[in-house]
Amino acid sequence: MDREKIKKLLEDVKTGKIDIDEALRTLRAFPYADLGFAKIDTHRDLRKGFPEVIFCKGKTLEQIAKIVEKCSSQNAFVMATKADREVYEAIKKVNKDAVYHETAGIILIGQRSGAIGKKSILIVSAGTADLPIAEEAAVTAEAMGNVVKRLYDVGVAGLHRLFDSKEELFNANIIIVIAGMEGALASVIAGLVDKPVVAVPTSVGYGASFDGLAALLTMLNCCAPGVAVVNIDNGFGAGYLAGIINQMGEEK
Amino acid sequence: MDREKIKKLLEDVKTGKIDIDEALRTLRAFPYADLGFAKIDTHRDLRKGFPEVIFCKGKTLEQIAKIVEKCSSQNAFVMATKADREVYEAIKKVNKDAVYHETAGIILIGQRSGAIGKKSILIVSAGTADLPIAEEAAVTAEAMGNVVKRLYDVGVAGLHRLFDSKEELFNANIIIVIAGMEGALASVIAGLVDKPVVAVPTSVGYGASFDGLAALLTMLNCCAPGVAVVNIDNGFGAGYLAGIINQMGEEK
Amino acid sequence: MDREKIKKLLEDVKTGKIDIDEALRTLRAFPYADLGFAKIDTHRDLRKGFPEVIFCKGKTLEQIAKIVEKCSSQNAFVMATKADREVYEAIKKVNKDAVYHETAGIILIGQRSGAIGKKSILIVSAGTADLPIAEEAAVTAEAMGNVVKRLYDVGVAGLHRLFDSKEELFNANIIIVIAGMEGALASVIAGLVDKPVVAVPTSVGYGASFDGLAALLTMLNCCAPGVAVVNIDNGFGAGYLAGIINQMGEEK
Amino acid sequence: MDREKIKKLLEDVKTGKIDIDEALRTLRAFPYADLGFAKIDTHRDLRKGFPEVIFCKGKTLEQIAKIVEKCSSQNAFVMATKADREVYEAIKKVNKDAVYHETAGIILIGQRSGAIGKKSILIVSAGTADLPIAEEAAVTAEAMGNVVKRLYDVGVAGLHRLFDSKEELFNANIIIVIAGMEGALASVIAGLVDKPVVAVPTSVGYGASFDGLAALLTMLNCCAPGVAVVNIDNGFGAGYLAGIINQMGEEK
Amino acid sequence: MDREKIKKLLEDVKTGKIDIDEALRTLRAFPYADLGFAKIDTHRDLRKGFPEVIFCKGKTLEQIAKIVEKCSSQNAFVMATKADREVYEAIKKVNKDAVYHETAGIILIGQRSGAIGKKSILIVSAGTADLPIAEEAAVTAEAMGNVVKRLYDVGVAGLHRLFDSKEELFNANIIIVIAGMEGALASVIAGLVDKPVVAVPTSVGYGASFDGLAALLTMLNCCAPGVAVVNIDNGFGAGYLAGIINQMGEEK
Amino acid sequence: MDREKIKKLLEDVKTGKIDIDEALRTLRAFPYADLGFAKIDTHRDLRKGFPEVIFCKGKTLEQIAKIVEKCSSQNAFVMATKADREVYEAIKKVNKDAVYHETAGIILIGQRSGAIGKKSILIVSAGTADLPIAEEAAVTAEAMGNVVKRLYDVGVAGLHRLFDSKEELFNANIIIVIAGMEGALASVIAGLVDKPVVAVPTSVGYGASFDGLAALLTMLNCCAPGVAVVNIDNGFGAGYLAGIINQMGEEK
Amino acid sequence: MDREKIKKLLEDVKTGKIDIDEALRTLRAFPYADLGFAKIDTHRDLRKGFPEVIFCKGKTLEQIAKIVEKCSSQNAFVMATKADREVYEAIKKVNKDAVYHETAGIILIGQRSGAIGKKSILIVSAGTADLPIAEEAAVTAEAMGNVVKRLYDVGVAGLHRLFDSKEELFNANIIIVIAGMEGALASVIAGLVDKPVVAVPTSVGYGASFDGLAALLTMLNCCAPGVAVVNIDNGFGAGYLAGIINQMGEEK
Amino acid sequence: MDREKIKKLLEDVKTGKIDIDEALRTLRAFPYADLGFAKIDTHRDLRKGFPEVIFCKGKTLEQIAKIVEKCSSQNAFVMATKADREVYEAIKKVNKDAVYHETAGIILIGQRSGAIGKKSILIVSAGTADLPIAEEAAVTAEAMGNVVKRLYDVGVAGLHRLFDSKEELFNANIIIVIAGMEGALASVIAGLVDKPVVAVPTSVGYGASFDGLAALLTMLNCCAPGVAVVNIDNGFGAGYLAGIINQMGEEK
Q1: Cα dist. C187→A238, C179, C200, D41, E52 in Å?
Q2: Touching subunits for chain B (3+ Cβ pairs under 8 A)
Q3: CA-CA distance, C178 to C219, in Å (whole number)?
Q4: Which residue of A97, C52, E166, G217 is 20 to 30 Å from B55, comparing CA positions?
Q5: Is the pTM of this model over 0.90?
């Protein structure tokens, strides 16, 4: 298609429809267009209804409010992560449609499109304190139109709780494992299933957990293959990654 | 199926075909069967032709030879990773069909089944020194029946080499990015494509690369979503993970 | 016992007392029962009166209150660790029997059973600032029914304080050593006694103590054998570990 | 010149213009003068109007106020970095000419001299949260008399935003890249331009960004040559370094 | 007993049996005797037949040979750890009774006493490469007179191998878990049993295993209570610790 | 002296002046007396007037108050370090003679003895923010009776400030160098003088100073010999160490 | 110029000199040309005579030989870094003009162009063991056409050696400081001069130098402004960076 | 004295004894002379017979041989550290008087002056593997003219060995403690004596000793005051530091 556009341009130059200077200007903007970054990005948003994501941490309330204001004027959906209640209130002022998923720390503006396909993502968390990250992953994947199931508080200290739910494990198309402390849950699950496992270390723990480092290393060294690791506490990243994997092979 | 087997067992008990003690013995081995670990493992191997994987590092030549001998008597395919030439020669003695992929450090025994589906995995590596890990990923994914394409030596120091191949980037179903030093290639590619990116940090580099730590942290902190990270130098893990993701939605 | 239950089930199937579908349903719940996780857990609690342990850090007050409410409705004893006064007040509202061990940061609900056996655990701490962790270990071990003796503030900067109490060291069945800063106390005591030493590094210190890392490494590298290390500030873990070791060989 | 001064002194001694004791006093101050520390420092300030820089972090408000008071009595310009509003108010009391650049955390007293030369420093930042450090660099370089251009929020997650501004990249005499998280922006830009790149890792991020360590390592391992790295969050250092490089070859 | 010895000495002084100077000399050697270091050490060796342990790493062959020569002249048993074949040959020259446990890297001289009690230590290892450390623990515990059972190669990547042996897990008095890579095996086992678990991280692995650091942190952060951690690759320490715990409550 | 005491005791036993049981009781307390811990400690305090030191960090106000109350009832001098104003007020209540050195964070009770000898300790600090640690060292050394001179704010960014005071450097008997950030000041001074240099890294700095780690490593790797390093921010330790070195060879 | 080329192409299309398909082919290679990657790279090499740089570490001898062969067929100059004698011999076989700078570990093929301008780069190294990195920087900068002066073995342990050469310090246009161990030399020099200082930490040292980490942190925390840091042992990077800075404002 | 020299020079200028150019030349060399670096260094060597120290690690045999050749032509004594036998043989060729202290890794050329004073340095090492570092300290201190006593293999695993030698501990003027693994020996000794303790962590150990990091942190966090820490394995630094402290107050 882009090839056609350039061919047309060259023909227009040849026939004198546009003069050389104008052609030059058009070609000046061409490289990244040809690379398709911006346009594809824009198209994808319009087509899938997937929200621009605003990472709130480190931004002032004023900055967030302005960004949301601009985004929501251009997009049907806006999504903000790592948002506390204060952020929510600032956003609420510029857009009263903002919905706050408090545990997940996510703010959504606009209607989410319906679920795509029937395959589900299972989110498994080790402990109650991992809930915020688990919900961040869940809300993200749902916002992308995925069917999400939750299996919380099934840490390795009592594996039977996990095995009680083995049907859910085997039925999932992809599994997100959220665990802090020693993070061994990812290894155990990856040893049981043949689906991709997205492992999210959390900063839950104390002492030699070193704010999630222990769980991160555990997950990276997982001896069962099929495990993808994301950053500590990166529920959004896990939800997004699982989301695009889950939708592979689905009609959109 | 497993349900059927147990039903049959119970019927046999009822009809007196087998006595209670024998049923008890059978049921004693049941839990893990019900969990489906071993069997599924075995079935998957026979069905997909996917090799048992022997991690050679840290094992003696004698141990490796014995494991290969046993594996190859039971499986159509055997796969050994992180194998140097010495390992290959030890294996060659117990199984003359062993084929050595030297750059990948992988030994394969047995015929691989044909490719499953048409979707391809693209393996992108940053530098020539990353080749062994890139090939480890490539040979692994191919051994699983995936179509693999290679795009090597396109590090961020000369992004035009990467952009020359943007069609290949956009056509791939999933991309494995192999990079040492600062590992920025994963971020750049994840910013361009909407497919999952499996990022493999390598220990290539010196000084503050700290044997791959720098690339690992870069990849974990990737601000573009859709990136799955595996352990440093874990070409096998990346190939396997990309392989199972690539086959999602494919008829097998 | 579990074997008997299954035998009975099979006999019931044989004699037609229960039909095959019902047997199938019963067996479906069997694997983890056979593995003995949940049941044994439950039995152990009822039998020993040892409390379910709730790790409070990272949980909201609402979550803690709900968990305590549910636990105390099912168990004679409930134990919560790393609990500050705010947590205590939240628990107090749902269960007025809650007793707060403030220095230990532990909340107990219900009567503890009497001490099992006469062998004692000696808890030795290096400094006054280690007290909270020492008490966490002490209260935990006592809650399990152990005889606990305390020997506080005997750091290596004044070894004579320790040697004054050498009788207590030699009489203990097992010793828990609590120390921050350089953590050398564990090495010194392990060099003196032939009993197991459970070493707990604490985050007490500053500068190059790196929040307990220095003490942790010291204890792991202890050249005197017989030392078991637990996580930094993990008084509960040390108390629990020493508790089960102390009760080995005791009639319960 | 200094040689001339001493020669003159010796001649004055010879001719008796000054007596030996006076010469001795003068020479007593000579070593560092000959080394050129103090004088050159003083001269450079008077000549260039470049402010003495007060690093506010870790100093009490009283100390800062006293230092500013003394500095502003001796210098036409005073500059204080890492200053919050509280610091500004303390300084305002001792010198009402103090101007506060709030985002940059910089306080300036006195008139800055006009821009030196026409070559410009381009400051590129990856995200909105990097703004304070970017502005710290910008205000510093401007205070030194440099022409500064800003190109903010062009992180690698959307490279097209960067490529839209490639003219600005190519026209800059030197580029400061400010990035947290994975810090890959420095590598990408250094791969595009042949000008020096001053890379500033920021502590923006979470989890395995380890307060800027990830970005720091990325930048240090940059495989594209021409990158100079400064400390995490050291906007001032980057602005100063770029400032003196930018003025090389300029008439002053 | 020591009290009696001193009482006797004092009586001898009173009755003039020994003069004051001689008593003084005797008392000069008293403090540590009273502290019971050396003597108890010696007595314990004679009584239990437990060998003096020589840590071979970092010592020259000459030093080791001399130490062994002296030890074996005074003790019925000598034990040397971390010994390669070269060390064995050097020891063999000074004592031809030396027996080499090659996988364990342990050399024993002299007859071991028979097993004490019937309770057994179970040693569980995750992979084949962990064998040397597992054997170091096993040979150590056996040398102390413990009954040792081995359960090797049951890593979490295939949990069914572990569950096949759950009877052995439940029957053991104490369990040593040896694991490298992510070290999750300790967590899984500690979640299953109510006996003490001694966890030994090994340096087996690569990349982000950081020579055993990943496994060490995993084990320290184990969320199931009852886990004691020793140094990376410290098979001897684990064997010794489990040995003394196992013998608690046994008649010796 | 201690020898004499025991001799006397034995003579008293021989002559029947004291009976055997009493002698036994006396000897029971003997080991550490013979080792000289407690008594020597006590004697040293009385003789030198050097205060017992209470490390306040991590202790509750109640604990500190009680310790101070007990110490000041037994000692002429009491010293408390890392004490903030809140601590001071708590101490003031139990002992109104308490004097607060606010910058140093030290509280002293009682009169210090006069200076011992004439040799002086020079305390050199790199920046204004290092003042609290420098003063902690200074007040400590003075409390021990040393002559202390101060040379503050002479960091390596302007070495002429240091060289202006080279006489003071050469005249000092021992030098304490206090520096954060890169901590290079210790290397520079150790390269100039032939006296011992006690180097104190401080946590002053940001980013890659990693709370004093950078300065600590710099000082440990100092290529000029004669440098002793203490913990990060350990002004007390440096003052004490320099104090006992300074008094070597002095008549006390 | 590139603008001109495209304008010319468009005019040729207009006038029919080249047909549309040919123009399309030419434009297909255009994006990165417009971005200036490949072409500018090529042009710069031809114009400046600056060699393509091959990083040898981690590449096989065969790979290096092939890369050199291809490079030297296309470029007048080829440069290979981190090359040992074995690499040199492999290169020598494919190109007999290869010249080996052994200390620098650099191989150059082809004539270097003459020096550009008169401003010089001064390379200062702390110790003899830093020589390889210093020479790597020196040979690199010279290969780019810079005048390089060397000032070796002037570490901070004997600052007078440095001050003896202060004229050279003041005369240099830019200074590269090479230092291992504590790396304080960069701070000292940056405190003396007002020119940019490129600091290269080296892995020279032992113990807590942690393979260059100590020197790296020192240099990053340098309190004197104007310091640019590169990777540990990155002599090439420093030489290149200093080279492009040195040529700023020069007529080329 | 230096003042006098300059006064004399000025008088000579005044009286015309020397002309201005000559005075200028003399003054040119003055700054560092006035700072006393070079001269004092030279004088100290001649006066004390203390050897120039050559750190051999990282230098080529050729470099070492040349440095030794030059040093030994100018100094009565030459000292080289971290020297293996190969280095010794290279030095032997250029100076046949070289004496090799093999365990210490030190080479000495020339006669050492007799011991200064009678106060002794006690060197205490924890284990046999620490011997090389202990001897490096011992030989260094002896080469400086100190009386050195050795107390080896008295690690904390058997404290009675240490207490047997308490007289030696109390009699020493200063104590050097050499320990690897957990390094607790320094804490224990510093708790016993009131003399300065120079603590040397060694890289002896394995696993979580992290090449001496564990011992280093232990020693830095020592809760007993009076401990000076030097770099890991820095026997020379400890010997030198203890040497100059030991000679304080001695007539030389």
Answers
A1: 44, 11, 12, 55, 18
A2: A, C, D, E, G
A3: 10
A4: E166
A5: no
